[in-house]
Amino acid sequence: MEERFWQPDGEKEEKDYLHKIFTWAAKNLWPVFYTRECAVNLLSGSIATRVADRKNIPVRLQRKMQMEFSTSLKKNEDFRYVYRNGKVKANRYLVMYVVENNQAINRLGISASKKTGNSVVRHHFYRLVRESYRLHEKIFNSGLDIVVVAKKSAADVGFKEIESALLHLAKLHHIIMEDKNFKQ
Q1: CA-CA distance, 33 to 41, in Å (whole number)?
Q2: How many whole angstroms separate alpha carbon 183 and alpha carbon 147?
Q3: 3-state secondary structure of 90
Q4: pLDDT surpassing 50 at residue 61
Q5: Tens-digit pLDDT profile for residues 40-58
Q6: Three-state SS letters, 20-45
Q7: In a designed cystine with 112, which of 26, 116, 172, 181 is the match (CB 3.0 to 4.6 A)?
Q8: pTM of the shown model
Q9: Do 130 and 71 meet the contact criterion of CB atoms below 8 Å apart?
């Protein structure tokens, strides 16, 4: 049996111990922690055990959810270059600026002003756009700087609307590979 730093005596102490584990894990480890065994192992084992014991975590949570062929635009001067030199298309929820970057990768920048909403709303918008781009990243042409700007109406829409708006603008810019046999 695996040793723990503290062994509970009795059923009540075990419930309290598990409650502490789940509370701590829910606050600190939510994406990593998924099953009871995993939470117990993470809290009671050594650091090496915590890192190595990921067999109880579903595969979908083990993978890093990051873009494979793209990076983020972060510098203000890069955003300004795209705003000045890029082609602009807009729809109901988004405005998209696109310019070639003479690199092998795409760079995605996301912007939302305070008019869109408070920081929670803006961050939610950032996550929706980044995830919809990540899911369809393979169909985008490479070598582009893309800036997506939120309109005020994007504050209260869901993932499907943002996803369809992003793909619609990409089609308008002709930056999506059009292949009839290609399935998204």
Answers
A1: 10
A2: 25
A3: strand
A4: no
A5: 454 554 333 333 344 444 4
A6: HHHHHHHHHCCCCCCCHHHHHHHHHC
A7: 116
A8: 0.62
A9: no
